[in-house]
Amino acid sequence: HRADLAAGRALPAVTRDGRTVTLLANVATAEESRAAVAAGAEGAGLVRTELPFLTAADWPDEAAHAAALRPVLDPLAGLVATVRTLDFAPDKLPPFLTAAGARQLPPEALATQLRAVVAAGAATRLRVMLPMVESADQVEAARALLPGAVPCGAMVETAAAVEGIDGIAAAADFLSIGTNDLTASLLGLDRLDPALTPARAADRPVLRAIAATVAAAGRHDRPLSVCGDAAADPHAVPLLIGVGCRILSVTPSALDAVRARIRTLDTAECAKAAAAVLG
Ligand code: PEP
Ligand code: MG
Predict the structure, then answer these.
(1) pLDDT digits (tens, 9 = 90+) for 147-161
(2) Can you tell me the distance from the alpha carbon of 171 to that of 108, in angstroms, rounded to the nearest whole number?
(3) pLDDT of 22-47, one tens digit each?
(4) Distance between CA atoms of 263 and 221, rounded to whole angstroms?
(5) Confidence at residue 131, expressed as pLDDT on a 0 to 100 scale
(6) Looking at residue 23, what DSSP letter applies?
(7) 233 in ligand 1 pocket by Cβ < 6 Å?
(8) What is the 3-state secondary structure (H, E, C) of 99-156?
(9) pLDDT tens digits, residue range 128-152?
(10) What's the CA gap between 213 and 156, in Å, rounded?
(11) How many CA atoms lie within 13 A of 152 on its CB side?
(12) Mind listing the UniProt keywords for this protein, alphabetically (predicted)?
């Protein structure tokens, strides 16, 4: 079965009615980047950068960022590389932060990382993505620190982001829905709650928020991807397609199965299924 799926790598990720879905990968290591390219991803829709620093004594300097990031980005030369800035959280906490302070990346720490990202990603089709964005101001502040003309996007992963989606969409060059945190936020679940599964992105309040984000991206003519684990969930994928998502970023080991699933789908049927959930 795995061999059959891998054989499908030569086939495009196209629905039965001929709609192309762009498949990107979520990566954090060089090995994952290589696996993503081998499995036919068009690039990385999410490069997580906080993982090497969970045991760091202090904010990483530019050299530390570069050392961590270069091996991850090297296999992505010529491809889309969507590098997310540090996303420490209560469940991803380095010793120099408290849970309460985890979400505030000081401007100096952000500026340092952005310089390193732009240098390390020079051979890629680089994009920078900000986690936990709740206002257009955050996008504008980050863009002001970003050297060059690198696209700057916003993750949509909180109820507040969905409420302010038009302002955020206007300020950002692209949007990416983080269904892991968005589902937790909208359903009032802790990120570590076992009830928080990727399939819960198909719950009505979450799917409504996703549909509202897709609509805002359309109004502002911004590319929109989904990079939470729902993008690889067999139950959620048809509903994401049904509300108009056309770019999915998934863990490399899921690329073959997601491509095969997309090739079984019809977008009109997906839209009907989504409409039934949205009510
Ligand atoms: C998400 O929240 O859906 C996401 C992709 O980011 P992370 O899992 O790293 O919080
Ligand atoms: Mg998140």
Answers:
(1) 989 999 999 999 999
(2) 21
(3) 999 999 999 999 999 999 999 999 99
(4) 26
(5) 97
(6) E
(7) no
(8) HHHCCCCCHHHHHHHHHHHHHHCCCCEEEEEECCCCCHHHHHHHHHHCCCCCCEEEEE
(9) 999 999 999 999 999 999 998 999 9
(10) 8
(11) 24
(12) Kinase, Magnesium, Metal-binding, Transferase
Using DSSP's 3-state secondary structure scheme, residue 86 falls into coil
Cα dihedral angle (25, 187, 132, 154), rounded to 10 degrees?
Answer: 60
Whole-number Å distance, alpha carbon 17 to ligand 1 midpoint, is: 31
**Ligand 1 pocket member 87 (CB < 6 A):** yes
CA 10–ligand 2 middle distance (angstroms): 31
- Take residue 3 and report the two structure tokens written for it: 């061999």
Ligand 1 contact via 251 beta carbon (within 6 Å):
no
Q: Which of 50, 45, 75 is nearest to 65 (CA)?
A: 50
The Å distance, Cα 263 to ligand 2 centre, comes to: 28
> How many Å apart are CA 117 and CA 85, to the nearest integer?
9
Q: Which atom of ligand 1 is nearest to the CA of 177?
A: 3
For residue 197, the SS3 value is coil
| Nearest in space to 170 (alpha carbons), one of 121, 219, 205, 214 | 219
Looking at residue 176, its pLDDT comes to 99
Which residue among 227, 248, 249 is best mutated to probe the pocket of ligand 1, counting the most ligand atoms within 8 A of its Cβ?
227
Which residues partner with 253 through β-bridges? none
- Which ligand lies nearest the alpha carbon of 230? 1
The CB of 157 under 6 Å from ligand 1? The reply is yes
